[in-house]
What does this fold into?
Amino acid sequence: MFDSRQRVIIFIFILVAFTFIVRLFYMQVIDDSYKEAAANISLQRIVEYPYRGIIYDRKGKICVYNIPVYDVMVLPKEVKKNMDTLRFCQLFSIPKEEFILTMTAARKYSKVKPSPFIKQLSHTEFAKIQDQLIDFPGFFISPRTVRGYDHKSMGVALGYIGEISAGRLDKYKAEGNNYYKSGDYIGIAGLENFYEENLRGRRGVKFMMVDVNGIQKGQYKGGIYDTSAIRGENLHSSLDLELQKFGEELMVNKKGSIICIEPKTGEILAMVSSPTYDPNLLRGREFSKNYMALQQDPLKPLFNRAMMAPYPPGSIFKTLQALTALQEGVIDSNTTWSCIQDVVHCHPHPQPCNLRQSIQWSCNPYYLQVYRKILNQNKSGNTFLDTRIGFEKWRDYMTSFGIGQKLGIDMPSEKKGILRTVAYYDRIYGEKHWKYSNVYSLSIGQGELGLSPLHMANMACILANRGYYYTPHFVRKIGDKGEPLPQYKEKHVTKIKPEHFEAVITGMRWAVQQGTVWSQARMKSLTICGKTGTAQNPHGKDHSIFICFAPMDNPQIAVATVVENSGFGGFVAAPIATLMVEKYLNDTINRKNLYDHMLTRDFIHKDTTEKEDNGKGRKAGKNH
Amino acid sequence: MARDEKLVRTIDLPLLFMYMALLFLGWLTIYASELDVNANLPPWDLSISSGRQLLFIGTSSVLIILIMATDYKFYDIFSYFIYGAVLLVLVAVLGIGKTVAGSKSWLGVGSFGVQPSEFAKFAAALALSKYLSNPLIRLDRWPDLYRAAAIIGVPAILILLQNDTGSTLVFSAFIIPLFREGLPPWIPNLGVGVVFLFVLTLIIPQTWLLVIIGILAVVFFFLIDKTLNNIIALVVIALVVCGVVIGANYFINDVLQPHQQNRIKVLVNPNIDPLGVGWNVTQSKNAIGSGGFFGKGYLEGTQTKFNFVPEQSTDFIFCTIGEEFGWIGSLVVCGLFLGMLWRLVFLADRQKLKFSRVYGYSVAAILFFHFTINIGMTVGLMPVIGIPLPFISYGGSSLWSFTILLFIFLKLDAHRGHMLARDAG
It folds into this structure.
C-alpha cells in the first residue's frame, strides 16, 4: 500500500540537498562579496604613519620639523560602564559635557573600532597621564606627529597641514585616489600642499587577525601582505630663513610683498606677503580656532599677495617697453624726446631725454612715444588695422616675459594676472574701432594690466640675466640627494636679444645712483640697478613699487617690492628692496638709519591723509 | 553465539560507515570551531568542547552496544512504556528543569545535564510506529488520524511549554511517515500551501496580496464551467486563502514575539535586525561564503575561530565546515546526509513489519528535518531555528538521542529475517 509514495519522499530529499549544493556553490564559488565582507571584519588594518619630510632653507637651517604628539583613542566596546568619569575628566581637564559628547560620537561611529578621544597631547601632558590610563580600560594612546617651527616666519610659503576634509576625500575617491582615510593629515597650503606626495612618504599597513571583540590574534598569513612605512622626502628649499625674517620685519605695518630670486637659477630666496601670520598658529590643537580668526581678519593674512594679487605695474613697466621697442627696431638707444606733457603729466626732471635718461628719470611722455612706435609701425594704411597688428606683436613680447600667465611656481593657487587680448578691445570698442589712443595707458604700466609681485620679480630676473629666466621656484632639492622638478631646470628665453639690455640696465643703474630712487636709499658699495613704479589704484594712495637686481655685472639677487597705498616708489619700495639686497649680499646693514626708518613706517594704521593731492581725474599722471 | 556473529554481518554497513564519517567530521570541526590559538590545547582536553565530544562519542558507543544487545522485540513491546516515561520526564522538566538560553529544557544533576526533549523524538517515533503497526488503523479515517496526531502532538506541546520552539517544530517531520502510511495527500498539500502563502505575506503587503487573490478569483471564474458547485467551491477557496493570508499576518505581527518575528522577516530582508538575528545570519553567510571552492584549510578559518559566528560548535557548526573545507566539504556533508536518508528509506521499505517501516521513515524524517532547517538557516534559506545538525553539532543529549534513534532502527533492520520467521510462524 502507498508504495509509490516512497519515490515522492526520496524526490523531496534530493530536491533539498540539491538546492543546498547549488546555493552553496553560488555563495562559495561564484559570489565574491562574502569573501570581502569576511576579510573586512576579521582583519584589522593597522596603519603605521610615516615621518613627514623636513623642510630646510638654502643654508641647511630647519624651517619645519616634526613634533610627536599623542592622541588618546577610545574603543567604546571595552569601556567599562562603571568607569570613574569624574577622575578621567579631572585627569585630562575636560568638562563632563565634552566627555559625554565625544563618547556619544565615538559610539555612534563604531563600537568596535577606535576613534580619537582627545587629540594631540604634548609629550609633557602624555607623561602626566601615562601611568593612570591603565585604570581606564578602552582608552589607549596612539602616537602621531604634527609640524613644529623654531621661528615665526614663512607662513604663506610653507603652508600648513590639517585633517583632510570630507569634501576633498570625496573628490579623491571620485578620482580613484584611495590613499587618504578620514582623519589623515594632508598638506593644505603652500609647499606642504604642492609637495604633499613627496613629503608624506608612504603609509605602512599591517594586517592583524582580530576576533569579534577586536582583540588581536596574530599576523594575517604570516605578514605577507604587510608593508612598512616609508618616510617622506626632505625638501631643501631655496629660501633664506634669515633674509625672509628680515623682509617680514621690514614689512610690518605695511600691506604688500617682497620677492627675492636668484636670477641665474630662478630660486626664490624670500617671499614675503604682508601682513603675514605665525605658522605656529596653524598647528596643534588650536588649529580650528586660529584658522577661523585668520580667515576673518580683514587684512587677509592667509592671502598670498606675492603671487595672487595683481597690481598695475606702473613705471617699472617702462623697462619692458624700451626693450620691446629696441628689439623691434623702432627706436635706438640714442632716440631722444622732450618731456611734452600734453597727454600725460610728468614730474620735473632734466630734458630732453635719451633712452638711458628716460629710465633714469622715468619720463612719462617718452614712453607714450615709444609705445606709439611699437603699436603703429605702418604695416597697414588703416590706423585701426595697424594698431591691431602692432598690439598682437607687442602682446607676444609680453607673453614671452611671463606676463598674463601663470609662471608655474611650485605652489598652489598662483594667479595669472591681467594681460588683455585683441578680442577684449574688440568687445569693448568694436572691431577696428580702437587704436593707440584707446590703450596708451599701457605705455606706462597703467590701465588694463595686472602683474603679481612674482611677475615683477621675474621681470627683474630677465633684466638681470639679459634676456632669459628660469621659472621661479622654492625647492632646489627633493630628497637629500635629489634635484628640483625638471621644469625648473628649463631655460626660458625671451624675444629680446642680449645686446638690447645695455641701455636699459644703464638707465636703471643711473636711477638708483641719481634718479627716481630716494637719495637716502643710495649706497656706494653695491652696484644696484633698479626701476621705481608708482601705481595708481582705486583703493587709495598709490602703490609703491620697485624692482632691482645687483650686482650689475654678475647679478646674485633680483628683487620686486610692492607696498600698497604708501605713495611714491622711490620712497618706500626702493629702500626696502635695497635693504634686502644689502642684507643678502653683505649680510650686515650699514644703512642703520634707513633700516630703522623703514621699520617705523606704518601704512596700515596711520591715517593716509596725503592721498588727497593725488590729482584724481588725471590719467596716468603720477608715474615715476 | 552463532546469532551474535550473524548480527555483525546483518547490521547495515553503509549506514554505520556514514554515521561514523559524520561523527568524525563533526569532531574535527568542533575542535576547529572553538580553537583558541593562544591556549594551544590538544583536541582531547576535557576543558574544551572537542574533548567533551570525544566523551560523548565514547558513551554513544556504549549506548550502541546496549541497543544491539537488547532483544529486538523489546522496542516493539515497550514502545508505549518508553513513550509514557519520556512524557513524564517532560512534565517533570517543566517543574524542576533548569533554564538555559531562555528554554527551560534541561534536567541536571550537578554540572551534568540532559535535554529530555531530545529523547522525546525517538520515543514519539516508537509510539507512532507501534500505533500504526496495528493493521486496522487507517489514516483516511478521522478518529485514527486524531490519535496519531495526539501521539505526536502531546510531547510537542510539552516541549513548546519549555519555550523550545525549535525542538517542537521537529515533530512536524512526522508528516513524512504518516504520508508514507496513507495520509490523505490534501493534508500535506494544505501544509505546503499555507507555508507558501505565509512566505508570500512576508514579501507582499497584505492589501496587495488580497487584491491579487481577488483578481485570480475573477480570472478563474471565467475559466471554469459555471456550475453552482464550481462557483461555490471557487468562492470558498478564495475566502479560505484570504483567511490564511490575514491569519498569517496576524500570527506574524501579533502572536509571535518580536525576536521570533525577526527570525522570519530576516529571510526576506537580512538588514532587519543587523545586530541580532541579522548578525547571526550575515556572519554565518560570510563564513561559509568566504570558504571558496577548496576552503581556507583545516584550522585556518577566521570567521568561526574568532567568534564572529555565534553558537559555532552547535547550531552554526556548518559554518566552520563551509569556511575551512569550502564547497567540497559542503558537498561531502550534504552527500553523506542524502546518502543516509536514501539508505534509511530503502531499508525501511524492505522491512517486513509495519512497525519497523514506520520507525525507519520516522528516523529519516527527523534527520531530514534537522538537516534542512539547520543548513538552510546557515545559508539564509530558512529562519533561524536553533536545532543541531545531527551527529556533527557539539552536545551530549543530541548525539545520544540521534544515536539511539538511528541504532534502534539498525537493530530492527538486523532482525528483519527473524521477524519474518516469527510472523510466518
About this structure: Chain B has two domains: 2-184+261-424, 191-255. Residues 191-255 of chain B form one domain. Chain B has 18 helices and three strands. The two ends of chain B are 23 Å apart (CA to CA).
